[in-house]
Amino acid sequence: MFQTGMMIKFTAHTILFVALTLLTQIGGLAYILAILARRRLWKSAPLNHVITAVAFLLMYAGLQTISAKAAPHFGRVPLPCIDQADEMVWMQSPLYCLLNRQYVTSELEDVVFQLSDYMNYAFPGTVTIILDAGFPFFDGFPLLPHLSHHDGRKLDIAYYYVNEEAVYVPGQTRSPIGYWAFEESTNQSTSPCADRDDWLTMRWDMNWFSRFLRPLKLDRQRTAEALHWLSSTGAEKGVSKILLEPHLEKLLDVESENIRFQGCRAARHDDHIHIEVR
Q1: pLDDT tens, position by position, 154-183
Q2: Handedness of CA 172, 174, 176, 179 (dihedral sign)
Q3: Distance separating alpha carbons of residues 276 and 225, to the nearest angstrom
């Protein structure tokens, strides 16, 4: 019975370690340090789980601070997490930063800030919103559920939106997390996956999520202008690939050789713009 209990506890710790590591890259290490600190300093104290949780939060906060300082040595820099008075670009939610997913290479950072500057110049008051980027350390470490965000050279950018009166809403997205507010095609001929029924696919429709969407509409003018910049000036600055659904290429009139369809087994790209740099 004792051995069974120990095995269950070890399995639970292992699952938490793996889950926190996959979710945040540094969370697993923070969890191990929290357990060691609790056993070292508060071994006989009551409310072990509460103490462990508090220790984890403290360790995680400390590791996040260290990550921001150490990331440049691994070729990564953090993007702005919140609204800043001197910038018109930031992460869609502080949650992305809490999960350590706001890191990119300096080359991609330059592209993002130049895109933001251009959009604010072309349409004064325009805010460019960033979604998932990458973790601070190590090429090849997966950023789930993405298939390619593993080297700091890939980044998702939110669409620009207008309200029901067709007025631009700065810094807002239709989805509360930036993803899954799909712009559905009205023409089957531009839906290359319409007649497929792949059993192994990440092309989820996420219909259950529609109840959480805000009553906003795609700002076609701003979104098209951002795509034009990325596929022209952006390409000169290192943007090598832009993923977008074919029906949006036609709708926004942004067809270009570096705008591509990601395939029918990857996640949909009619809710955000995915870019990559060389």
Answers
A1: 999 999 999 999 999 999 999 999 999 999
A2: negative
A3: 18
Residue 247, H or E segment: helix 246-252
Fold of 79-277: Muramoyl-pentapeptide Carboxypeptidase; domain 2 (3.30.1380)
Angle at 263 between CA 93 and CA 226, to 5 degrees: 45
The structural domains of the chain, with segments of one domain joined by +, span 2-72, 79-277
* Contact assessment for residue 159 and residue 218, using Cβ atoms and an 8 Å cutoff: yes
Phi and psi angles of residue 238, each rounded to the nearest 5 degrees, phi first:
120, -5
Q: Which residue has the tokens 């939060």?
A: 57
Name residues whose C-beta falls within 8 Å of residue 203's C-beta, 6 or more positions apart in sequence: 193, 264, 265, 266, 267, 268
Q: Cα 134–270–227 angle (5° rounding)?
A: 75
| Residue 243: closest CA among 187, 189, 202 | 202
User: pTM for the full model?
Assistant: 0.91
Give the model confidence (pLDDT) of 232-263 as tens digits: 999 999 999 999 999 999 999 998 999 999 88
